[in-house]
Amino acid sequence: MAVQTVASTTDSTVDLGPAAALSCRECGHRVPLGPVFACEECFGPLEIAYDFSAYDTEQLRKRIEAGPANIWRYAPLLPVPADVADKPNLNPGWTKLVKADNLARELGVTGGLYVKDDSGNPTHSFKDRVVAQALEAARAFGFTTLSCSSTGNLAGAVGAAAARAGFRSCVFIPHDLEQGKVVMAAIYGGELVGIEGNYDDVNRFCSELIGDPAGEGWGFVNVNLRPYYAEGSKTLAYEICEQLGWRLPDQLVVPIASGSQLTKIDKGLQELIKLGLVEDKPYKIFGAQAEGCSPVSTAFKAGHDVVRPQKPNTIAKSLAIGNPADGPYVLDIARRTGGFVEDVTDEQVVDAIGLLARTEGVFAETAGGVTVGVTKKLIDNGVLDPAKTTVVLNTGDGLKTLDAVAGTGLTATIRPNLDSFREAGLA
Amino acid sequence: MAVQTVASTTDSTVDLGPAAALSCRECGHRVPLGPVFACEECFGPLEIAYDFSAYDTEQLRKRIEAGPANIWRYAPLLPVPADVADKPNLNPGWTKLVKADNLARELGVTGGLYVKDDSGNPTHSFKDRVVAQALEAARAFGFTTLSCSSTGNLAGAVGAAAARAGFRSCVFIPHDLEQGKVVMAAIYGGELVGIEGNYDDVNRFCSELIGDPAGEGWGFVNVNLRPYYAEGSKTLAYEICEQLGWRLPDQLVVPIASGSQLTKIDKGLQELIKLGLVEDKPYKIFGAQAEGCSPVSTAFKAGHDVVRPQKPNTIAKSLAIGNPADGPYVLDIARRTGGFVEDVTDEQVVDAIGLLARTEGVFAETAGGVTVGVTKKLIDNGVLDPAKTTVVLNTGDGLKTLDAVAGTGLTATIRPNLDSFREAGLA
After folding, report:
1. What are the chain B neighbours of A91 within 8 Å (beta carbons)?
2. What are the TM regions of this chain, as residue ranges (chains A, B) (predicted)?
3. What ranges do the domains of chain A cover?
């Protein structure tokens, strides 16, 4: 946690609002704000250190509440300039916190169940939140091209944000992706480059490109801009608490891909506590994975501190990172808060997508099936307390993973007359 | 216009807020609120007559501004009970009004160009707005099943709203729809009935079912609940004006399917003027159709008062109504306001989808391609004034009409190394 740190002589003069410096999560070494992501001392991951020292709690609360209905209401807590809302970007966030009373009844939750539904973002996933931060960093560092490696949601989010902001974009994907995902990534008019190889090959190539003169002036949102990018997930924590009436939930169920989102949600909650915007009380964070890519839940259950990589094989493709960079931090947070990390089978993912849709009218992508499925499993196993206020994240949109529920279809086929209607037992 | 009408002895006691009665748009005959849609005197269409007489302008404005970030901020102007925001529904609306400066530059608009982007609604189309009204009417009249005939957006909106509200749903579609649309309509768990026949057959069957005991207790959102349902489109007008700072735009470009949306947007603007919430000044409404289904633009250009039905043949399937019920009213409004009704080819629709995506990062469904394409054509032809403030509607989501832009794809395919990257001319 780097709240209320004081500016030092190493701090940057780049205007990214309250962001004061980059600080190593392992050794604490501090460097000026810049497009770097690994510590020069110990190779640990860098994250943003803020200077929040000037804030008065009640003034800050009022400023937030008077802000726009998007993530920029939290600009005072993000690595972005104060006038960010005036710059062209997709203005994601302030998505619905759905009070899920029907789902609560089905699951036996009595303490209040909510679904934070990030399918309402501009490109229909939480990735718009993180890309919006990376875009501001790219502006600050003078980059003119936005880039990333992706297999889906991120490609669309980067393409759309770059289009609106007037950046060139060049996105790298495996060349044999499904046509639907290719169309979604290509429609925004940037360069969309298929790499002959798998996602690992794409990633390796991007790392090579960053070190080459050809990659100069390029902001890779999830590589050299990663410290900024990752902070976008804090806004999920801020919104959940504000939408609950500036109250911490007792329990949160968060999907794990790289684990970055879960760690930043924890960071956001801790900031709200330190800033006095919410009461300081315990909360538990639960991580959710698909069984076919469950390196973190496997490590958690085995009591390990390190995460052993897995080869992913699951329909929850947006969570299919076999070697999650933030895995060890996730284990720390789940253990520190008294949470748990659990996984569900692909069949349970599909069932959970259907359960959420038919109880709340929310059509989640497979990642949302993972969190709802894990919530059910944790309740059934007595790990999650049904008497406590619980928030479950849906980070994407079912329209993007239609294949996963392709078995869903017509309940009847009839001829266009009442006799046929009655014969089908529909009357 | 039925603003500030006074309650009469025929008025209903059903609590739908300021809705006082149903009134015939042709002969003015007034009947109590109920699940009826055609005038018993002249068979004209019924619409809601309101009693807004108690409202003080500034109090109303404050009440709206303090309301939730969804359509229920306008509950005082809608046929819904005052406590509607507390009932389970999808809470649609308050979607982004995107300041489209990049698109404005491409089109030569200097007076301010905005895209009202309704893809941000819960099921990603404006249909959530109208279904939310029909749901409240269904509750008021004691219906327990929500139904409709649909070929796409409406099926999903009804299924989702019914699921969340705890209604049974039974939606009728042609049996041979694309698999993607079937999945989207089926995921919410209601009955999804395929009819062996085309959309006309589906509609005819629904009319038969309404008159049969088997259809008792069923609210067909776009048939017997149509007067309530249609009012949801007024919220587009309210939001646009409030988001412009309680200001009328000079020009609006609105898609035409049945024509209902355009007529209700005009009704909403007129209400805001009469209530004093915006300045009374002229505005022009432009209607947009696809050339392959352009009965209204054909009639407009020919100077006719009646609309001759067409057999639709266009990729803009959500607008493909060959015999639009509100066609004559649309002609009236376009002529009264000094607007125009124009159409574009399918090729222009696809081009316009790409134009909007690459300038503003908004991925519109084909209906959005129609409005953006028509806007471009109207400017090129000198009909729409580029020096005036203009709002273009995007009523749906590109993810639902991927086939229309299936030609969009990779800009290059390379091997995972820098040499291949350079050879492709990407450096």
Report:
1. 96
2. none
3. 97-124+233-405, 127-229
Q: Cβ–Cβ of A96/B122 closer than 8 Å?
A: yes
pLDDT score of A427: 76
ipTM confidence: 0.94
A97-146: pLDDT as tens digits: 999 999 999 999 999 999 999 999 999 999 999 999 999 999 999 999 99
Distance CA(B292)–CA(B311), nearest Å, equals: 8
Residue B53 pLDDT exceeds 50: yes
B425 touches chain A (CB under 8 A): no
* B67 and A CB contact within 8 Å: no
CB B30 within 8 A of CB B15: no
CA distance A315 to chain B (A): 17
User: Is the fold of A97-124+233-405 the same as that of A127-229?
Assistant: yes
Task: Classify each residue of B305-335 as buried b or exposed e, where b means 16 or more C-beta atoms within 10 Å of its C-beta.
Answer: eebeebebebbbbbbbbbebbbbbbbbebbe
Closest-CA distance, A63 to chain B, in angstroms, reads 16
Give the position of tokens 């806004």. A235
Q: Is some CB atom of chain A closer than 8 A to the CB atom of B42?
A: no
Alpha carbon of B227: minimum distance to chain A alpha carbons (Å):
24
Architecture in CATH for domain A127-229 = 3-Layer(aba) Sandwich (3.40)
**The listed CATH number (3.40.50.1100, 3.40.50.150, 3.20.20.210, 2.60.40.290) that belongs to domain B97-123+233-405:** 3.40.50.1100
CATH topology of domain A97-124+233-405: Rossmann fold (3.40.50)
Is A408 close to B354, i.e. CB distance below 8 A?
Answer: no
